[in-house]
């Protein structure tokens, strides 16, 4: 298990952790899970493999801190209070992030391992929660609690399919259409 309880007091250890986590996150986003080995991270960070293994004995330990760093850097558009505008902004931000082509490699590696590795399942869940936090927050502010998760799945699923599986850009009209279709199925019908 990674030694990640709190910040190290020794500035050299803190610097090493920071450098290694940055290198791991960059490799993970640029090259994917398979290429983010202890050797590659050591090369990128400028430390020995022994140092990397001492702090992150397994690849899941290394990925856990890299993904935590990636998740900490995620920002979501501020909410204005207008359901349609806020959903549009949040879904557009998600689509742009996915279309960069970096997160698909990241998600592919995590999803591939999640079926047989509990640590990878935790990472998958963390990525999903982080990526969908903006949309989920908007929905939770406007919908009945029972409508939030199904609506979230419809909206995020449509964006994922368009970008990841179809390889298409997500147009503003597409986002507006899926919002209208998803909200039509919610408790907002009578409002």
UniProtKB/TrEMBL annotation:
The keyword DNA-binding applies. Residues 37-56 bind DNA. It holds the Pfam family TetR_C_11. Residues 14-74 form the HTH tetR-type domain. Keywords: DNA-binding, Transcription, Transcription regulation. One of its GO terms (molecular function) is DNA-binding transcription factor activity. InterPro entries: Homeodomain-like_sf, HTH-type_TetR-like_transc_reg, HTH_TetR, Tet_transcr_reg_TetR-rel_C_sf, TetR_C. PROSITE patterns: HTH_TETR_2 (PS50977). The keyword Signal does not apply. It comes from the Bacteria. This is TetR/AcrR family transcriptional regulator. It comes from Streptomyces xinghaiensis.
